C-alpha cells in the first residue's frame, strides 16, 4: 500500500540548484530543500502554496510550521547518511492544517536535503477509520463474549453497564422492565462498580424511556436534553451531564429494557459511527438480557416442579438412623427412575416405613411416574400395615393408570424395641436388601416377590429381620450392582463386590454406609454411562445412645 | 494422597485461649484424634464443644483442630493404617462434630450477620472428600459471607446452572485427589465462563497451589483461614473467558486423551504381561488379584494426570508413595518395576508418557536380576518383602 516515490533522482549533477529548481517547480509534488542548519534553502512553487511563505535560512520558522519535518531533518543529519545511501526507508509522516503529509528525503552532497512532500491525507483518513473500526469490532466481540457468559439477569445488567462505560460513554444506566411497581436500575460510572437500585419514579419524565421499556411503539435511540433528565437517572457522583442518549434494548419478542448513556460536558456527542456502535451493542445486550430472563423463568419453573421429584433428605427417626443417596443416570436431569422415601411412625401406625423403588426407564418421564407412586403409597399407608396388601393396592392403582411402565420396590417396616429393631422386609421384584451384622457378616434378606404394575396380582414373601446395635439394613437399586466399569472397563460391579465392601462397614452410621456405597459405585463406573443408582440404609445406632432415640436430628446436640 | 504427617500441634499453640491455662495449652487435635479414630461420635463432639467453651474460637477449632485431624486421617490411610471404610467413618465423625459445633449457642452468637457477598462452595465432579469444603463453608459464614454449600461430587453442569441462577461473587472449588485435576480444570473453566471468579483449594492443587495456577484458577489458598482472608481482601475481576486448552498447550499431542481412552486395555494388557512374567502373582487369591488390577488402574490414572498437567512429580510422587504403602499392605501387591516396563512397551509411541515412565522407573526400587526372569524368586519387586 506504499506510495512509490518516483522522484528519487539523485541531486549530484553539476549546478544542482538551478536544475532542482526547474525540476521541482515542474514536479507534481511540493519540494522543500533544507540546509544543514535546518533553514529553508529553496522551495518549489507548489510547496509555497502548501506551506505559505517560509522565510529562507530560518530554522525556527521550519520548526514552527513543520515540527515533525524539522525533527526528521535533524535526525537525518545526525545519523550522517551519505548522499549515496538509499533513503527509501527514511520517510516521515506528519500533519499540517488537518492534512497528512509524507516527507521523503533526498540528501544532497552539501549536507542539504531535498524533502519531497506527498499529500496522503486520504490514506491517513482511511487508516484512521480502519483502526477505529477495528477497535469497535474488538470492543463488540469482547462485549458479546462477556454478555453471553452469564444467564443471570442481574449479572447480565452489570455486564451491560460495565461494557458501556468501557467503550461507549462516561456513565451508563441499564433499566430493566417493571418488577411490580418498581423500575430496576443498574448504574455505573467509568472506573467504578455497578450499583443496583430501584425507583418508583415514572419513566415518562425521560423522553423515549417509557416506549423503550414497553417495547412499543418502536423508537430509535435518541439524544435528549441533559437538563430534562430527572436526577434519579444520573448516577451519584457523576457531576454535570454533557450529553445523554436513551437506547432501547430490544429483546426477541419482549422488551428487555433500556440503556441510558451519559457523557461529560467536555466530550462531544456521538458521531454517526459511534451511534451505530451503540445500537449494535444495545441489540446484543438486549438479546443477552432477554435470554437470561427467559432462562431464569424456566429455571424457576423447573425448580418448583422438580422439588417434588427430588429424593427427600432422610432424617433419623424413632431411634433409628435412616440415610439415602441417589445418583441419576444422566447429569442433565437431577431426577430419574429410582426413588426412596421414609414415612415415620404415626399414631395409627407404629412402624416407620422405608421404601426404595425403581421405575422402568430413566430420565424425566420415569421421574414423573416415581412421583405418582410415592404419592399413591403415601395415601395408601393409613389403610394397611400388611405389605402384601399394600403392594396389591399399589398394583391396582398402577394398572388402572394410563402409564405402561412398571416398577420394582422394596419395603422395610422398622420398629425399635430397646436394644433391638424388628424390620419386616418385602421385595416386589427388587434386589433383596443386605444386612450388615456387627461382626462384619453380610446376609441377604430372604424376600422375593413379583414386580408391580404388570400382573393382576402381586405375590411376595415378607422376611423378618432383627437388627442389633451397629447393624444395618442396606437397600439398593440394581443400578449399583449392575454398574459396569472397574479397572478392566467392562466388568459388572456385582452383588459379591458390594458384599465385600459392606463387610468393612459394620458399626458405621447410616450416612457413612450410604456415602461409602455411593463412592465405591461411582469410582467403579468412572466416567462411563450408568443407570440410576439409589441406596437407603437403616441402621441401629451403635451403643444405645439414648439421646439419639427421641431426637430427629443427626446427633444429640439438637437444642 | 501424600498428606502431611501431622499438622495439629502447631495450630494448638495459636489456639491458646486468651483466658485459658497458658502454661499447659491443651492439644485439642490430639484429644479429638482418639474418638475420631474409635468412631465415637459423641466423644468427638464433646472435645470440640469443650474447646469452644474453654475459649477457643470456632474458626481455630475448624482449621487447627478438625482440619488437622482430618489431615491425620488422610495420612493414616496413606500409610495403610486405616481402611477406606474406616477413613469414611472417621470423616463422618468429623462432619457430625462440625454440625454439633455449628449449633452451639456460642458459635451461633459469634456468627456475624451476612454482610458480605455470596460464595458458592462445592467439590468438583467425582470428588467425594467433602470435609475440606464443608470447613471452608463454615469459616466463610463466620466471616460474614453468605454461603451456598453444594457438597461433594457436584456435576459441573449442575454447578454452572447454580451459578447462573444465583450469580455468586465467587465460587470456591475443592479437590483432594490429584487424579481429579482434569475434572477440576473443566469445572474452573466452566465457572469462569459464567463470569464468576474461582478460588481453588484442596490437596489436589499442590502444597504451593501450583496446579491451581496451571489450571487458570483466579485464586488459591492453602487452607480455609487463608481462603477467607483472600476473599475478605476483595474479589478479583473475573478472568476473561478462555478455552481450557489455552492453559495447557501440550494437550495438543493428545497423549492424555489416548492414554485415558485406552485405560482399560492398558490395565488388561499389563496385567496379562505381569501374569506371564512375575511367577509369584500366579498363586495369589482372587481378592489379591483384584487389588493388583485396581492398583494398576491407579497407576494409569496418575500417569494420565501427569500427562494432563505436564507435571512429572504427580506420577513419581504416586510411585514413591506406592512403593511404601504397597509394601506396608503386606500381601502380594502390584510389582511396580515390571508394571512400569510393560506400560513403557505399550506406550512406546508416546514421547511424553515414555519420559514419565522412565522418570518413574528411577524412583521405584528395582529387584536384583533380570525382571521377571524365570526362576527369579523376587520377580515381583519390593512388594513381597
UniProtKB/TrEMBL annotation, chain A:
Domain PPM-type phosphatase: 317-540
Gene3D superfamilies: 3.30.450.40, PPM-type phosphatase domain
Coiled-coil segments on the chain, per record: none
SUPFAM superfamilies cross-referenced by the UniProt entry: GAF domain-like (SSF55781), PP2C-like (SSF81606)
Ranges where the record places region Disordered: 79-104
Record domain GAF: where: 152-299
Biased composition (Basic and acidic residues): 87-102
Domain of life, source organism: Bacteria
GO molecular function: phosphatase activity
Keyword terms of this UniProt record: Hydrolase
UniProt cross-references to InterPro entries, sorted A to Z: Bact_Sigma-Reg, GAF, GAF-like_dom_sf, PPM-type-like_dom_sf, PPM-type_phosphatase-like_dom
PANTHER family, sorted: STAGE II SPORULATION PROTEIN E, STAGE II SPORULATION PROTEIN E-RELATED
UniProt name for this protein: Stage II sporulation protein E (SpoIIE)
Organism: Actinacidiphila rubida
Automatic annotation (TrEMBL), chain B:
B12-binding domain mapped to chain residues: 116-242
GO MF annotation terms: cobalamin binding; metal ion binding; methionine synthase activity
UniProt GO BP: homocysteine metabolic process; tetrahydrofolate metabolic process
Keywords: Cobalt, Metal-binding
Keyword Metal-binding set for record: yes
Top-level taxon of the source organism: Bacteria
Spans annotated as Disordered: 1-25, 361-385
SUPFAM superfamilies per UniProt: Cobalamin (vitamin B12)-binding domain
GO terms under cellular component: cytosol
Biased composition (Low complexity): 11-25
Protein name per UniProt: Methanogenic corrinoid protein MtbC1
Lineage: Bacteria, Bacillati, Actinomycetota, Actinomycetes, Kitasatosporales
Amino acid at each position: 500500500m506504499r506510495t512509490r516515490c518516483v522522484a528519487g533522482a539523485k541531486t549530484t549533477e553539476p549546478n544542482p540548484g538551478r536544475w532542482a529548481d526547474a525540476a521541482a517547480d515542474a514536479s507534481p509534488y511540493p519540494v522543500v530543500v533544507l540546509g544543514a542548519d535546518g533553514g529553508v534553502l529553496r522551495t518549489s512553487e507548489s510547496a509555497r502554496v502548501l506551506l505559505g511563505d517560509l522565510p529562507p535560512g530560518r530554522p525556527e520558522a521550519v520548526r514552527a510550521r513543520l515540527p515533525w519535518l524539522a525533527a526528521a531533518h535533524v535526525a537525518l543529519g545526525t545519523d550522517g547518511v551519505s548522499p549515496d545511501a538509499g533513503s527509501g526507508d527514511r520517510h516521515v509522516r506528519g500533519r499540517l492544517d488537518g492534512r497528512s503529509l509524507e516527507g521523503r528525503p533526498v540528501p544532497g552532497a552539501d549536507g542539504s536535503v531535498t524533502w519531497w512532500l506527498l499529500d496522503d491525507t486520504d490514506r491517513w483518513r482511511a487508516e484512521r477509520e480502519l483502526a477505529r473500526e477495528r477497535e469497535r469490532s474488538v470492543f463488540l466481540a469482547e462485549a458479546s463474549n462477556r454478555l453471553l457468559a452469564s444467564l443471570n439477569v442481574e449479572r447480565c445488567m452489570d455486564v451491560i453497564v460495565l461494557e458501556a462505560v468501557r467503550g461507549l460513554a462516561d456513565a451508563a444506566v441499564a433499566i430493566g422492565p417493571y418488577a411490580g411497581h418498581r423500575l430496576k436500575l443498574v448504574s455505573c460510572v467509568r472506573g467504578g462498580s455497578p450499583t443496583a437500585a430501584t425507583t418508583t419514579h415514572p419513566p415518562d419524565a425521560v423522553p423515549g424511556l417509557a416506549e423503550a421499556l414497553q417495547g412499543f411503539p418502536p423508537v430509535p435511540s435518541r439524544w435528549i436534553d441533559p437538563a430534562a433528565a430527572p436526577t434519579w437517572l444520573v448516577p451519584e457522583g457523576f457531576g454535570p451531564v454533557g450529553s445523554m442518549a436513551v437506547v432501547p434494548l430490544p429483546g426477541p419478542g419482549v422488551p428487555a429494557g433500556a440503556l441510558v448513556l451519559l457523557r461529560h460536558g467536555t466530550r462531544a456527542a456521538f458521531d454517526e459511527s459511534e451511534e451505530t456502535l451503540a445500537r449494535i451493542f444495545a441489540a446484543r445486550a438486549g438479546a443477552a438480557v432477554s435470554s437470561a430472563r427467559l432462562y431464569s423463568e424456566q429455571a424457576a419453573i423447573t425448580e418448583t416442579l422438580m422439588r417434588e421429584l427430588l429424593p427427600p433428605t432422610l432424617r433419623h427417626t424413632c431411634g433409628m438412623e435412616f440415610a439415602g443417596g441417589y445418583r441419576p443416570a444422566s447429569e442433565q436431569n437431577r431426577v430419574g427412575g429410582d426413588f426412596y422415601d421414609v414415612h415415620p411412625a404415626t399414631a395409627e401406625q407404629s412402624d416407620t416405613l422405608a421404601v426404595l423403588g425403581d421405575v422402568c426407564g430413566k430420565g424425566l418421564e420415569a421421574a414423573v411416574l416415581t412421583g405418582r407412586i410415592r404419592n399413591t403409597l403415601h395415601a395408601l399407608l393409613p389403610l394397611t400395615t400388611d405389605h402384601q396388601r399394600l403392594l396389591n393396592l399399589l398394583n391396582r392403582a398402577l394398572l388402572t393408570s394410563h402409564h405402561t411402565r412398571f416398577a420394582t420396590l422394596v419395603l422395610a417396616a422398622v420398629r425399635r424395641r430397646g436394644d433391638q429393631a424388628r424390620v419386616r422386609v418385602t421385595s416386589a421384584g427388587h434386589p433383596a436388601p443386605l444386612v450388615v451384622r456387627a461382626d462384619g457378616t453380610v446376609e441377604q434378606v430372604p424376600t422375593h416377590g413379583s414386580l408391580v404394575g404388570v400382573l393382576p396380582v402381586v405375590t411376595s414373601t415378607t422376611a423378618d429381620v432383627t437388627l442389633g446395635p451397629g447393624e444395618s439394613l442396606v437397600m439398593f437399586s440394581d443400578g449399583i450392582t449392575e454398574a459396569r466399569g472397574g479397572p478392566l472397563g467392562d466388568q459388572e460391579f456385582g452383588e459379591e463386590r458390594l458384599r465385600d465392601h459392606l463387610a468393612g462397614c459394620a458399626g458405621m452410621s447410616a450416612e457413612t454406609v450410604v456415602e461409602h456405597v455411593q463412592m465405591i459405585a461411582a469410582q467403579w463406573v468412572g466416567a462411563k454411562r450408568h443407570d440410576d443408582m439409589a441406596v437407603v440404609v437403616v441402621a441401629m445406632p451403635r451403643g444405645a445412645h439414648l439421646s439419639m432415640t427421641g431426637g430427629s436430628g443427626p446427633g444429640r446436640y439438637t437444642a | 494422597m501424600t498428606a502431611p504427617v501431622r499438622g495439629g500441634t502447631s495450630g494448638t499453640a495459636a489456639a491458646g485461649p486468651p483466658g485459658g491455662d497458658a502454661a499447659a495449652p491443651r492439644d485439642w487435635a490430639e484429644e479429638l484424634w482418639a474418638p475420631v479414630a474409635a468412631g465415637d461420635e459423641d466423644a468427638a463432639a464433646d472435645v470440640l464443644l469443650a474447646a469452644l467453651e474453654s475459649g477457643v474460637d470456632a474458626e481455630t477449632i475448624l482449621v487447627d483442630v478438625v482440619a488437622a485431624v482430618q489431615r491425620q486421617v488422610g495420612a493414616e490411610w496413606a500409610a495403610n493404617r486405616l481402611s477406606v471404610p474406616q477413613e469414611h467413618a472417621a470423616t463422618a465423625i468429623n462432619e457430625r462434630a462440625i454440625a454439633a459445633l455449628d449449633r452451639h449457642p456460642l458459635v451461633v452468637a459469634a456468627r456475624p450477620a451476612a454482610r458480605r457477598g455470596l460464595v458458592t462452595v462445592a467439590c468438583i465432579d467425582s470428588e467425594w472428600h467433602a470435609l475440606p469444603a464443608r470447613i471452608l463453608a463454615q469459616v466463610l459464614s463466620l466471616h460474614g459471607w453468605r454461603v451456598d454449600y453444594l457438597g461433594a461430587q457436584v456435576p459441573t453442569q449442575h454447578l454452572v446452572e447454580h451459578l447462573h441462577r444465583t450469580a455468586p461473587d465467587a465460587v470456591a472449588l475443592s479437590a483432594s485427589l490429584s487424579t481429579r485435576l482434569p475434572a477440576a480444570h473443566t469445572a474452573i473453566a466452566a465457572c469462569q465462563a459464567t463470569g464468576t471468579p474461582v478460588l481453588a483449594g484442596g490437596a489436589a492443587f499442590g502444597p504451593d497451589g501450583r496446579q491451581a495456577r496451571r489450571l487458570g484458577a483466579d485464586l488459591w489458598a492453602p487452607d480455609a483461614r487463608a481462603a477467607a482472608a483472600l476473599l475478605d481482601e476483595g474479589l478479583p475481576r473475573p478472568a476473561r473467558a478462555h478455552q481450557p486448552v489455552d492453559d495447557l498447550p501440550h494437550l495438543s499431542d493428545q497423549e492424555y486423551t489416548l492414554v485415558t481412552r485406552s485405560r482399560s486395555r492398558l490395565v488388561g494388557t499389563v496385567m496379562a504381561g505381569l501374569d506371564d512374567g512375575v511367577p509369584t502373582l500366579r498363586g495369589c487369591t482372587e481378592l489379591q488379584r483384584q487389588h493388583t488390577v485396581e492398583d494398576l488402574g491407579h497407576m494409569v490414572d496418575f500417569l494420565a494426570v501427569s500427562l494432563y498437567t505436564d507435571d512429572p512429580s504427580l506420577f513419581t510422587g504416586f510411585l514413591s508413595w506406592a512403593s511404601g504403602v504397597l509394601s506396608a499392605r503386606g500381601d502380594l501387591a502390584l510389582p511396580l518395576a515390571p508394571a512400569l516396563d510393560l506400560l513403557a512397551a505399550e506406550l512406546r509411541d508416546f514421547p511424553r508418557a515414555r519420559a514419565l515412565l522412565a522418570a518413574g522407573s528411577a524412583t521405584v526400587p528395582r529387584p536384583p536380576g533380570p525382571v521377571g526372569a524365570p526362576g527369579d524368586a523376587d520377580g515381583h519387586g519390593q512388594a513381597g518383602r
